[in-house]
Amino acid sequence: MAEKLKLELVTPYKKVLTEEVDEITATGSLGEFGVLPGHAPFLSSLKIGELSYKADNKVFHLAVNWGYFEVENDTVTVLVETAERADEIDLERARAALGRAEEALKKLTPEDHNFRAYEAALERALIRTQVAAKAARK
Amino acid sequence: MANLKSIKKRIVSVKNTRQITKAMKMVSAAKLRRAQENVVAARPYATKLGEVLQRLAQSQDSDGHPLLEKRVAEKALVILVTSDRGLCGGFNANISKAAERYIKERKGDYAEISVLTIGRKGYEFLKNRQTIRKNYTGVLSSLNYQTAAMLAQEVIAGYLEGDYDEVFLLYNAFRSVMSQDITLQQLLPITPPEASAAEGETPPEYIYEPSKNELLGELLPKYIEVTMFKAMLESVASEHGARMTAMDSASKNATEMIGKLTLVYNRARQAAITTELMEIISGAESIKG
Fold it and tell me: Class assignment of domain A5-86?
């Protein structure tokens, strides 16, 4: 496969990635999708989820938090609020956050205005532990 | 001469002041570098988001979303970004005055103009002269995206409820260490960034997921957040730049003053010695005679 995708991953704090990759998988608001070179122009919002890409037959995982995914002309631009590489994630801390969020959720009712915030925190922590676990398995 | 002692005292005190201004300059220089890095780091995100927004807004009949819709402008809000701390030259005074001037100019166009201040200095300047809707202090020293997003949400909420029909953002844009540009930007309703020079070619047809309107609805508030975040970052960088320049010139002035005072001191000392010598000589002469 000669053709490659150019992946750019940007957060408000820094440019996380600029790389040539073969394949990208991400979690959109309507579900998971994959992008290969030659994809039609495409714009989607991303949920809290996992983003993985394949380059040189190696798969890399990232935990991303809310953003956009744009494909145009084999250039993929990902705008997210936070992005963490699997090897940057502190598994201990993520687990602790997971526990905290679970505890808080148990005490709250869905009507509470903090409920959604904690729910999001839970989701984030969950994704981070999953991503970190994937990296550790290799 | 009693004068000698007081000059000496002056020199010591100016030296102490110089030490402080020098230290402040160093601190500002370090902070400026960090702030500058932040500004540069935030730029790609803001530009990319602007691009995406532009493409979306272009391919759509841009009414429909309340944040894009132009209303009859009766009430305006000016968001003024200053710093929390002083000692940075004309940084705060200039922008506060610009805000006041602007409000005076536009008073006829709106029924009401209120101000939202970010930073203590702007608030103190305007609190007795204009209607302050709200003031935020202490958000700039440890600025992060979440804070900016929260502020933006509040502004948007007020806008949607009809508290104001137009929102302007006034801040110091970072030009270089020496200079800041006072920038006025319309925040709401959003005017999408103009299409770049590559006109004529039809934009490629996109696949949208979820629908275009839903995407736009999520993207527009984001855009406000990022714009405010960027403005605040730039203001912080400008503040440190201004303080560094101010402290640098203060140190220079102090050095100059020390030089002058030393000269005066030496002259006075010389004069004292001469008088004393004259007295001794004339005393000796009179004994001889």
Answer: mainly beta
